[in-house]
Design a protein that fits this description.
This is DUF695 domain-containing protein. It comes from Sphingobacterium nematocida. InterPro entries: DUF695. The strands form four sheets. A six-stranded antiparallel sheet has the order 11-12-14-15-13-16. The chain starts with a strand and ends in a 13-residue tail after the last strand. A hairpin with a 5-residue loop joins strand 11 and strand 12 (about 240-250). It is an alpha+beta fold. The chain folds into three domains: about 20-105, no CATH class; about 120-220, no CATH class; about 230-360, Alpha-Beta Plaits (2-Layer Sandwich), CATH 3.30.70.100. The chain is globular and about 65 Å long. About 35% of the residues lie in helices and about 25% in strands. The chain is built from nine helices and 16 strands.
């Protein structure tokens, strides 16, 4: 794949849905095809046309484009590893029409180790100079915590080696498996290694084995929160303003946390300056309404657990632990548009297999 570009461009004529986008693409595909095949004026003839149209669907689209074979251009749409955008990449490609001379791919695919050789910043990244080993923690037995070793890593080239190693793994494992199957990753030198080094070409088999174990252990595990206990917490921030939190204390003691490894964090900003950073009555009602809308769509028996919420300093955060990241992304994207004239809402989805980010809610 030859060309990579972040999609942030000035919007032109609005495209409202996937069908609109692909209709526009079909009308221009011949120009795009010629630009990629000839390697001539690719920015002007392809990237600068495609970028604003994708950005009108949603922020966060990235892409790669190049010749798949002599007669076929491959357009790979990617979320660049951002979990909350994965589902929108997949949906867009699912709606793609069949166009002669084009291959559309959702997310960067895995590659054979023999075909993965990256050169970046004056360094090489391949199966000859990369190794790994797994760190085992009895407290977090299902966490995939890896150290990856590059032969040439020093204190002076940490950034260059780190960037190249991530690009290598992204291409070798594929975007989705890299995101799904590794929880923690640290890049170290040979001198820092504390275990026997395993060749990097064994990594796929290792991750497949660990993922198989994980699925066998947790597949179908759900939690009914109907009779759970809740704790109300109060604290004072450094600026003197109050913080109020409501936490499902039963869930914090649940031994099945790893089955719901994806954390949905919703942040809603409001103006509470007249109330010491807390919402007034009408805003409080609107915040509760929004949270109820989320809960109507993300139910515990489907694998989505409302763990906590905290309110302070002109902001409310709502936290769900989820079995996957696709449905929460869709639901929040829809609700944000629905409430866009009433609330300022942002959200993120991150992986935290043992809910370590919720430890602050525990009562000591």
């Amino acid at each position: 794949m030859s060309f990579f570009k972040n999609i942030f461009s000035k919007k032109e004529e609005p495209i409202k849905n996937y069908v609109d986008f692909w209709n526009w693409f079909q009308a221009n595909e011949n120009t795009f095809f010629k630009a990629i095949k000839s390697h001539e004026e690719i920015e002007e003839r392809f990237f600068d046309k495609l970028s604003p149209k994708l950005s009108e669907l949603k922020d966060g689209y990235f892409y790669l484009a190049g010749m798949y074979d002599d007669n076929t251009v491959e357009l790979v749409l990617t979320a660049d590893g951002n979990a909350k955008n994965i589902v929108f990449i997949e949906e867009l490609v699912e709606h793609a029409p069949k166009i002669d001379g084009w291959k559309f791919t959702a997310l960067k695919p895995a590659m054979d180790i023999k075909n993965v050789a990256i050169s970046m910043g004056g360094y090489k990244f391949d199966s000859n100079n990369l190794f790994f080993y797994s760190n085992d923690n009895p407290v977090y037995p299902d966490e995939i915590d890896l150290c990856v070793i590059h032969n040439e890593l020093t204190e002076d080239n940490t950034q260059e080696i780190g960037n190249g190693t991530y690009v290598f793994l992204d291409n070798y494992l594929g975007e989705l498996d890299f995101l799904n199957n590794i929880d923690n990753l640290k890049i170290i030198s040979r001198q820092e290694a504390e275990k026997e080094l395993v060749p990097i070409d064994k990594l796929k088999d290792f991750l497949a084995w660990r993922q198989k174990e994980f699925i066998e252990k947790y597949s179908g595990l759900r939690c009914n929160t109907e009779n759970d206990g809740y704790s109300s917490l109060e604290a004072v921030l450094n600026n003197g303003r109050p913080l109020l939190a409501i936490v499902n204390s039963t869930l914090l003691e649940w031994d099945g946390k790893a089955s719901h490894p994806w954390i949905l964090e919703v942040q809603i900003n409001y103006n509470g300056n007249e109330n010491n950073g807390l919402p007034d009555a009408s805003t409080y009602e609107l915040l509760d309404e929004f949270e109820e809308q989320i809960m109507l769509e993300l139910k515990d028996f489907d694998g989505y657990l409302n763990v906590a919420r905290e309110t302070a300093d002109n902001s409310r955060q709502i936290y769900f632990a989820c079995k996957d990241f696709r449905k929460p992304s869709r639901i929040l994207h829809t609700l944000i548009k629905k409430y866009s004239d009433k609330l300022r809402i942002e959200y993120d989805i991150y992986k935290d297999k043992y809910w370590q980010s919720f430890e602050r809610f525990r009562l000591n």
